[in-house]
Automatic annotation (TrEMBL):
Organism, as annotated: Megalops atlanticus
PROSITE patterns: ALKALINE_PHOSPHATASE
Subunit structure: Homodimer.
UniProt family annotation: Belongs to the alkaline phosphatase family.
Protein name: Alkaline phosphatase
Main location group: membrane
């Protein structure tokens, strides 16, 4: 868990993060790194996505998730509502709700799932099922009383009520599902991990009751997850932490599954549906690592995300599965300094500054908590261990939390209709392509003709399995 001011963020994988993760991946297996191929590097199509929100040049994860899941750009801080909704103003919710590709897929008879390393009611996943003017309304305890009275619902409640029976839900966020003061199963008696709900509801018990005759299973630790036989599971709720999952470098391998393990189980459950499936996967803690200035954590998260993409690739076929990997937004993270080939990605540039005569790391942030002045001058990084997991890379401007970046992010795609994701596109174009490929949502005329002709590769389209792997940098 992060010990910093709660970042209300998710993904965040900009292009510098992709490149640095590629080098790290190679260096972890003993190579110089630059020549390594990430799994996403092997995708045949790449596009750039313009990430701005309707009211923000530099985006947050809520507005961007609404764009790439619901197909419309939205205001910062809002999920599953159009730009007519005003952040935190409950009464602007009603009539402005927009639906997501997850719902379009469910309505079309596909199985659907959400897998994230953050809370399952965090900004990115919530845009798939909730309509909320405030991304921070995790449970009713985080909401103003007036908003509850005016009929607005917290995001945890919406997870279970808006789209009945999402087949797979995995991530963190246990505490938002239990009544206030309920002790957590993994951290008994620890106050900060206790249930938060003021309405006294136990959403997990309610869910278990609802799916008890439908081959539904609730698990809260890795061992129980891996003990399941996915062939005998049609509904899975896995909540592995009271809040976000830990960074993969700090994961408790007894209790917390890796992102790759969660994706593996999710696909095994979802792919049993002959009509196909839709899966949203979020490597949400890339963003958190960056916000904390902890580049090494962020990059290891990105490498784990890439491993999950590789696993998903082994379990699906590009002949019937569209896979899209993208980020919600970037970060002000970069690396440079004329480092030689094979230089450790967390290492130093080969020269000292010709201004202050001090060494500097290749990785630097534009702003963030790594800004350090020691005795009135820039810290000499040779006097500290800049390779440790939680080292905060230097930044130009001091901020308690590093910010998102405003530049375009990459969209990698493979599978049916993947070629439509090319060129520079608005972020909200993405789900329309996925829906078009899967023959779900509003625009399905091409599917009818494909079926009636029943010839050529397009005849297979209605069975498309759409998987969105949202390799995200963190958005706050
Ligand atoms: C909506 O609520 C805001 C306060 O949050 C209030 O100022 C505004 O008048 C309300 N609008 C309507 C149409 O009720
Ligand atoms: C929760 O615990 C706190 C502190 O122990 C107590 O003040 C509060 O009344 C309790 N609330 C409920 C709903 O039990
Ligand atoms: C920085 O620290 C290293 C290691 O202690 C030292 O050799 C070097 O002289 C220092 N550079 C400056 C400019 O203080
Ligand atoms: Zn963020």
């Amino acid at each position: 868990m992060v010990a910093v001011i709660t970042p209300l963020c998710d993904a965040g994988m900009g292009i510098p993060t992709v490149t640095a993760a590629r080098i790290l991946k190679g260096q972890l297996s003993g190579h110089s790194g630059e020549e390594t191929q990430l799994e996403m590097d092997k995708f045949p199509y790449v596009s750039l996505s313009k990430t701005y929100n309707t009211d923000a040049q530099v985006a947050d994860s809520a507005g961007t998730a609404t764009a790439y899941l619901c197909g419309v750009k939205a205001n910062e801080g809002t999920v599953g509502v159009s730009a007519a909704a005003v952040r935190s103003q409950c009464n602007t919710t009603f009539g402005n709700e927009v639906t997501s590709i997850l719902k379009w897929a469910k309505d079309a008879g596909k199985s659907v799932g959400i897998v994230t390393t953050t809370r399952v009611n965090h900004a990115t996943p919530s845009a798939a099922y909730a309509h909320c003017v405030d991304r921070d309304w995790f449970s009713d305890a985080e909401m103003p009383v007036e908003a509850v009275q005016a009929g607005c619902k917290d995001i945890a409640q919406q997870l279970f009520e808006n789209i009945p029976n999402i087949n797979v839900i995995m991530g963190g966020g246990r505490k938002y599902m239990f009544p206030k003061n309920t002790s957590d199963v993994e951290y008994p008696g620890e106050h900060k991990h206790m249930g938060t709900r003021k309405d006294g509801r136990n959403l997990v018990e309610e869910w278990k009751e609802r799916v008890k005759d439908l081959r539904g299973h609730y698990v809260w630790n890795r061992k129980d997850l891996l003990a399941l036989n996915p062939n005998n599971v049609d509904y899975l709720l896995g909540l592995f932490e009271p809040g976000d999952l830990p960074y993969s470098l700090e994961r408790n391998t007894e209790t917390d599954p890796s992102l790759t393990e969660m994706v593996d189980v999710a696909i095994r459950i979802l792919r049993k549906n002959p009509q196909g499936f839709y899966l949203l996967v979020e490597g949400g803690r890339i963003d958190h690592g960056h916000h904390e200035g902890k580049a090494k954590q962020a990059l290891h998260e990105a490498v784990e995300m890439d491993r999950a993409i590789g696993r998903a690739g082994l379990m699906t076929s590009p002949y019937d599965t569209l896979t899209v990997v993208t980020a919600d937004h970037s970060h002000v993270f970069n690396f440079g300094g004329y480092t030689p080939r094979g230089n450790s990605i967390t290492g130093l540039a080969p020269m000292v500054s010709d201004v202050d005569q001090k060494p500097f790391t290749a990785i630097l942030y534009g702003n963030g908590p790594g800004y350090k002045i020691v005795n009135g001058v820039r810290e000499n990084v040779s006097t500290i261990d800049y390779n440790q997991n939680n080292y905060q890379a230097q930044s130009a401007v001091p901020l308690r939390m590093e910010t998102h970046g405003g530049e375009d992010v990459a969209v990698f795609s493979k599978g049916p209709m993947a070629h439509l994701l090319h060129g520079v596109k608005e972020q909200n174009y993405i789900p329309h392509v996925m829906a078009y490929a899967a023959c779900i949502g509003q625009n399905t005329r091409h599917c009818v003709s494909a079926v009636s002709q029943a010839t050529g590769p397009s005849a297979a389209l209605p069975g498309v399995l759409a998987a969105l792997l949202s390799l995200t940098p963190l958005l706050c």
